[in-house]
Design goal:
Strand 1 and strand 2 form a beta hairpin. It is elongated, with a radius of gyration of 16 Å. It starts with a helix and ends in a 17-residue tail after the last strand. By secondary structure, it is mainly beta. Strands 1-2-4-3 form a 4-stranded mixed β-sheet. It has 1 helix and 4 strands. About 5% of the residues lie in helices and about 35% in strands. It has one domain.
């Protein structure tokens, strides 16, 4: 999936949600995952329909201009509902 964010940051599957001007003159960029395949379980590949929670990360290795640019990446975490995956480390399953 190629969009303007991919072209700008060379980061596929992510979109800019909004940009804010900070008090120090820098900019804060809010990113979201825009690739539907992020819902797929890494163990079985089945797409989830239930959100487990959310997290915000601060990637620091993305390119930026001369002025300060802060990235906040808002991500959703998904439940895998496939039977038998409860024993796989790192895979959450619904009870």
């Amino acid at each position: 999936m190629v969009n303007d964010t991919t072209l700008l940051l060379d980061l596929d599957g992510v979109s800019v949600m909004r940009v804010e001007r900070c008090e120090d003159g820098g900019r804060r960029v809010h990113l979201v995952t825009a690739d539907a395949s992020a819902r797929a379980c890494p163990a079985c590949g089945v797409f989830s329909s239930r959100v487990k929670g959310s997290a915000t990360t601060r990637p620091r290795d993305l390119p930026y201009g001369e002025r300060g640019l802060e990235f906040l990446w808002h991500k959703r975490r998904w439940w895998c509902r496939e039977p038998g995956l409860a024993q796989v480390p790192g895979i959450a399953q619904l009870a």
